[in-house]
Specification:
Length: 266
């Protein structure tokens, strides 16, 4: 039996709304400069950068840079990300139709989901503060509401996005945007389901995000450029001799021991 199930699927209306709001802030201004700092004289700007080091978030408990953990640690390799597995975890990959590149991976666990994307960032500063403002503006423009609040990863946004119900009415779905600035990278997690508004329900997915390893690589990339992701490689099938059932019968494997459930979305 194949370890991974892949299929093409069409996002429903709610998922499309979420995807638009979650990607607009980080991709629309890729390669843009730093705003007000660019209006200062070059000498003064360089002096300020030397005098004021960039704020570095506490990542002692994760998410991690690839340089901070062993290369072979049992995590699932997904290109620019490596994920630690959980029993019952499901993965859904979003593939750009024109380029066929994987642009996001969504982790499903315990009735909630977290969409993960990772971007290049400048060496001297993070981008989450600017991106928060852009996401807030995009959500507000769509008729949603935004609340900035402290969270386990630092400042985050709780957004209520407008969605159309089955009976034609407009409702508001809570969606939670979390960002982590790392060394030359930025990780964004978009929580939906109970994890978006229930702290206890969010713990399992937050642990997954905290265990993430970002593989930035050494290639030059523009700020906010998507770091490539990849579908997981199928695990090798056992030899015929290993397929034979022992005298006592075959023990049923737990869900993640068989491999996470994979859905490819275009």
């Amino acid at each position: 039996m194949s370890l991974f199930r892949r299929k093409r699927a069409r996002d429903d209306e709610g998922a499309t709304t979420e995807s638009t709001a979650s990607t607009e802030g980080a991709e629309s201004t890729a390669g843009a400069g730093g705003g007000a700092a660019g209006t200062e004289p070059a000498e003064q700007g360089a002096q300020d950068e030397r005098d004021v080091p960039p704020a570095v978030p506490d990542r002692s408990r994760g998410p991690f840079d690839a340089s901070e953990v062993p290369a072979e640690d049992g995590r699932l390799a997904l290109g620019g990300l490596r994920l630690a597995g959980r029993e019952g975890m499901e993965l859904r990959f979003e593939v750009e139709e024109t380029s066929q590149r994987v642009i996001a991976v969504t982790v499903g666990l315990a009735g909630s989901a977290a969409q993960l994307q990772v971007f290049a960032a400048p060496r001297s500063s993070g981008v989450w503060e600017e991106i928060r403002a852009e996401i807030a503006a995009a959500v507000t423009a769509q008729g949603g509401a935004v609340e900035e609040r402290p969270g386990p990863f630092g400042a985050e946004l709780l957004c209520r996005l407008p969605v159309r119900t089955e009976d034609g009415r407009t409702a508001h779905r809570p969606t939670r945007f979390v960002g982590v600035d790392g060394p030359r990278w930025f990780l964004r997690a978009v929580f939906s389901g109970p994890a978006a508004h229930d702290a206890q329900a969010a713990q399992a997915l937050e642990d997954v995000v905290r265990d993430v390893v970002v593989v930035r690589g050494t290639d030059a990339m523009a700020p906010r450029e998507l770091i490539p992701l990849a579908l997981p490689q199928a695990r090798p099938q056992p030899a015929a001799a290993e397929e034979q059932e022992p005298a006592g019968g075959r023990e049923e494997l737990k869900p993640f021991e068989r491999g996470p459930e994979i859905t490819e979305v275009r």
